[in-house]
Request: fold
Amino acid sequence: MITYLINLKRARERLNSCEKEFKKIELEYVLVEAVDGKQIKLPHPNFSHFRYSALHGKKINLGELGCYLSHLKVLKKFIESEHNQALVCEDDIEFNPLIKKIIEEALNCGIKFDLLRLSGGSDINKEKGSPFKLKNLHDKFHLSINFGFKSGTGCYLINRKGATEILKRLSTMSLPIDHAIDRDWLLNLKSLSVTPSPVNLKKELHLDNSFINATNEYKLNFFIRYWTMVPYRFFNELIRIIYKTFLYIKIKLEH
Reply:
C-alpha cells in the first residue's frame, strides 16, 4: 500500500498538522501538491458547467474544481506506481491510533471492495451515510455499507480497479468529488466504509479555515434548482437504495 497526502502549497498550517498525524501512527506518505483553484481559468477542458449547474444546483466554485482535479492527479500517480492499494488523504484529517490495524483487518476480512471510505466529518458523534454493519473488524469498528450519501473525501483506501474506473468515467467534473465517487452503480466498483469513522476532520481546519468554502452563496435560484437538481437527487438516492439493498443481501448470503 502507498499513502498519498494532498496539500496546497500555500496551506503550510495544514501540512504541519498532518505531519504530526502521520508521525503519530508511524505511517510514511508521498506528498502531492494540490491543484490550486485560484490558478484555474475557465472554461476548463475537465469541467462541464452545464452539468454541474443542473446536477448540483450551484455556481462553479473553483476551490471544488481544484479539489476534484487534485484527486484525479493522485489516482493517476497511483496507477503509474507498482502498488495495488492506495490510501488517499486530504490535509485536514486526524487519525484514530488504530487506523493501520483497521485497514489491515478490512483487507483481510474476506469481503472484497474497490473503495473503502474511512473518514467522517468534524463531528465524531454524527456518522454520515446511513451505514449498515457487515462485519466486525477490530474493537468497535465495523465494515459497513452505506444506504445514504456519504459526503467528504478526507481519507479513503482504493485499489487499482477503483482508480482506473474513476479516471475513465469521471475525467470531466459535473459534481464535487465526494458526490461523483459515491455512485457505485455508474462507476462499476464496490464501495464500503468503516464505522465509526477511524478518520475525522479537524474542525479548526475543515470548518474554520476551509480553502473551498462551499457556502450557500454559490447556490442557484431556488426554482432553477427545483427543476434540475431535485429530480436528479431523488432518482440518484432511489437507485442507491435499490443497488445497496441487493449488494447488502449478496454480501450477507456469501458471508
About this structure: The chain has one domain: 2-254. The chain is about 40% helix and 20% strand. The longest helix spans residues 222-254. The first strand starts at residue 2 and ends at 7.
